[in-house]
Amino acid sequence: MLNSLKSILRTFWQGAVRNKGLFFACVLMMTFSLVIFSSIFIFRNSTQNLIRVLEEKMDISLYFKKEVPEEDILKIRDELLGYPDIAAVEYVSQEEALKIFEERNKNNPVIQKVLTEIGENPLSASLNIKAKESNKYETIIQEIENSAFKDKLTNVSFTENQKVIARLNHFSQAIELVSALVIILLVILSVIITFNTIRMAIYSLRQEIEIMKLVGASPWFIRGPFLIQGAFQGLVASGLALLILIPLIWWLGPKLENFAPEIGINLYFWSNFGYIILIQTLFGLALGLISSFLAVNKYLKV
Amino acid sequence: MSLVYFKNVSKSYHGNLILDNISFEIENGEFVSLVGRSGVGKTTILKLLIREEKPTKGRIFFEDKDINKLKPREVVILRRKIGMIFQDFKLLENKNSFENIAFAMEICGCSDKEIRQDVPELLKLVGLEDKAGNFPYQLSAGEKQRLVIARVLAQRPELILADEPTGNLDPINAWEIIKLLTKINELGTAIILATHDKEIVNSLNKRVISLEHGKIVRDEQEGRYLI
User: Fold this and answer.
1) Which among A281, B97, B123, B223 could disulfide-bond with B208, CB atoms 3.0 to 4.6 Å apart, if both were Cys?
2) B227 falls within a domain
3) Is the CB of A213 less than 8 angstroms away from the CB of B79?
4) Residue A102 and residue A153 in one domain
């Protein structure tokens, strides 16, 4: 068993060494594919993080006329909680609103002075609404505008994150689409190159293969070296891709975070390092194994 | 139980009939010469026996097992029981004599210890004990063929198929190879020698199966090459 394994590994190594130019070209192509694959994977997940943070910051605030009693507002809150698209409704009384406003502006003497001069609480009570999904805010606003309590409101304020999220979503989808096309192209190229590398290895070892068949080597003994070569190319490419990705993220991460701090590419990369290595390695292995399996099935009749 | 049994076997390639309804049996330990002109189907018979080809019609049995019904795993076992010798040797040029035999043994799953023990003995048996480190290009044609025989013997086969083994050899080396094959046969291994060398066949005084136009025209014990 151990001897057979040694022999399979030796045959694989001979095949790789005899076609080292093609072997390295193949590894480089696979590395390139894996770098693109992992970059897209990291970018996609970081963008999703950013979208999630922005979504969390989204809400609708309903400001009530001063004469609307608190119990009416609380009834409206209960009514709103019955809406299928609403996740939560928070009541902020006039007093609480003033407290928050004063706290926020405690270092602004002008505002402090104005508040003192007015002598009464100028702020309205409000309800802060969180939707279940970010794309439901427009629907909720429409429902509020058509509601019976519309006349009790002074203002409906909607944090405009939705446009940013929509843009991010569009951007992310466009990137995903282009990336998917690029990945498909790179995967096809990698498969073709790996397929040809294995074909060349089979050709250069044809004498050995013929003798293996003659002396009764098992089909997997004959196929093994080529499948190992495919898998090995995938593994080496995965390792090289990682060596390229680390400085790339290190260099690009801060630049992207200047543009959108919540994107946290660096943080995502390092906190999911093991997972990224695993996904990338599995992708590389699958790429190598599938290509070599196709080549072996086509060119190696055992 | 016959070692080999061809039962009404026909083989055609792209409509050309190479073997036409041939039947014969070979017993354990027999030495059979398969004779006939080039292209008469001698090599095809050998290829059918190691399941490199399948017959168009008929059945082939090795040790009572229908070769065409063997599973891939069983084909591997069949090929380990049948050794093949070729006119063009089929040696690995980048391996020396020792390594060429060791390679075949490794494939069959032999341990390093077995390889270290058996290879020098096999080289001695074929008279190449002092050429263990020589590469095929450093060997004469006769020595190459003897190395091939050593490699075949490493498998401990029950049957050896020799396809024109003397075709590339001068008469002296050819005789040495035939003597070696006869010696192996005397030790109990069956041999099928496919050849069109009249002189060798006639001097062997063993069973001869003569082929002509894809048919067996003669099958004689202690036969002669009469085509």
Assistant:
1) B223
2) no
3) yes
4) yes
